[in-house]
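hi! just following up on the protien thing from before. the input was this:
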Amino acid sequence: MLRDIASSGSGERVSVGDITSALGQAGLGGAILVPSLIALSPATAIFGVATVCGIAIAVIATQIMLNRKKLWLPRWMCRLRVRRTALVWLRNRLERPFVWLERRSSQRLTWLMRTPMGYVPGILSFLVGASMPFLELVPLSATTGGGAVTLMVLGLLLDDGLLVLGGILAAVCVALLVIGIGSGLSGLIL
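and the predicted 3d structure came back as:
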């Protein structure tokens, strides 16, 4: 999947639409990994990156919960462009850890991924994505949200509930960050 992302489109800059088309068989689960991996990277230090990733995560998580078969993204998001060098860097950086994780994953805690508990990762992914614009106020704090969604999605793709549980715990950390940011802002206002 990482190779498909890095080789998608043509030219030096690749559109988000080209990337989602390249995912093809990976479907919505693979598609939500793209913004969550970007959010997991240091790119969230650039103001606005976490917001775009969060919106994409929330939109894709909603579609997963609605059982859509094909990904829909707003036109403006499909037209966003990413440097190919960034995609190649992402592939080179993450390929080995993904292979390592895949070798060590197994069917554990599968009840976390079955109905009714199976809705929890989708709902939490939506909530984490929706909270990412607030995390822009603290530099790099959105990486926690990217990590939460990445762990939950990888757990679902690899059928490993332990990874899903790790993602749920990271989502709780995101909630605590948002509460902390909110209480800090309310202290400034009052």
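The CA atoms of residues 151 and 166 lie 6 Å apart.
The chain has nine helices and two strands.
cheers
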